[in-house]
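Lecture notes, unit on protein representations.

Consider one protein chain, 58 amino acids long.
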Amino acid sequence: MIQYAQHIKLEAAINQMKYTNMTLEQIAFTCGFGNYPYFHRLFTREYQLSPSKYRKSH
């Protein structure tokens, strides 16, 4: 259940990365992650790419 919730939050973060100019830190907090390092760690584990590299490539 926790993994599903994390996946949904990561998908929301991807949408915000694509369609807003918010900083990655703002996106992490907006999507419900407690802090940016935790978001970065989960994102990198899920997509094998850091959030900043993902944003630049998409």
